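Why do we bother with a discrete structure alphabet at all? Because it lets us treat a fold like text: something you can write down, compare, and reason about line by line. To make this less abstract, here is a complete entry for Histidinol-phosphate aminotransferase. Read it the way you would read a sentence in a foreign language you are learning: slowly, and without expecting to understand everything at once.
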Amino acid sequence: MSKSMTTKITPQPGILDIELYVGGKAPAQGVANSVKLSSNENPHGPSKAAREAYRAQADFLAVYPSSDHGALRAAIADVHDIPAENIICGNGSDEIISFLCNAYAGIGDEVLFTEHGFAMYRICAQIAGATPVEVPENNRVTDVDALIAGITENTKIIFVANPNNPTGTFVDSSELARLAAAIPQQCLLVLDSAYAEYVEGYDGGASLVTAFDNVVMTRTFSKVYGLGGLRVGWAYAPQAVIDVLARMRGPFNVNVAALAAAEAAISDREYLDKCLIENKKWSNYLVTELNALGIQCDPTFANFVLARFASEEEANAAERALAENGLIIRKVGSYNLPQCLRITVGKGVDCQRIISVLRQFQEARA
Ligand SMILES: *Cc1c(COP(=O)(O)O)cnc(C)c1O
């Protein structure tokens, strides 16, 4: 009998039900010009100021990071015009999602999200021992009425990503306000605003956090700020929630280089604007060209598009054709979208390569 079959060491109930998170694939070895468009990373990388701030920390690596993240929180507070004491930083926003589930949901509790919701909601609910509950979307758009209908006396947390991943769709603030007003006061609404920067004039739900005692907004440096590799995220939350999360957080959960780079990144508004302009240009191009090729695609509010094929088999064949040409994109079968492929908006040349490969693909099938 193998060692693992005799072990008496067992995890908490539910842990072995968790399906491993599968991230975006990395570029294939040996394929020329391979490019990763599978994890919604900024194809232009972080601002020069952020890279310099990161390098400058190389001379101070023996020293523990700031435990209160004061400088980074001040920079965030300044840009978003919110109080620094209501901000908490995490090792990616994933860590904050995990803190929220562990703090507010347990065995017998329900964590609510939509049918194509971000994978970490389910995983973190399961880690906490809670029951993940999915409600339908309305043609790939968050359906506030379905969320309200899904609330039971056991619902403790509702997660809404807006813009949503992997659909790229968006509901406006008035819909979120309607949701916040409708939920029971003992139920927490978490607005995951990982892609909020891409929506002009959208505050990511910050004003709802200010207005309600039970609304939290999470943000990340992994997407438009181009720092996915460093793992920095943050939340804006009511004081009572901050007091809870502060107790769960490891004192040094964000490292020195990440803190310095994130502070520089959020302060470089000029670079942010440039990235947003490029993204708008090439996301429009992808949506228009995909539709022209007969591949359905909703308008996107983020830095990726969701291409809808006639069938799962077609989507898989298109994924293979793109991979053979060095274009690595994301299959989204695990998001209940097996006939779709999620494509990160890359540099212009790479978006053109995507369309060129898919044009040949469609012609070969016609
Ligand atoms: C990418 C993403 C995040 C960010 O995760 P980090 O841990 O901050 O890298 C959070 N929510 C959604 C919906 C995302 O797509």
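What the structure line is telling us, in plain words: The pocket of pyridoxal-5'-phosphate is lined by residues 40, 92-94, 118, 161, 165, 192, 194, 220, 222-223, 228, 233 (CB under 6 Å). The mean pLDDT is 95.
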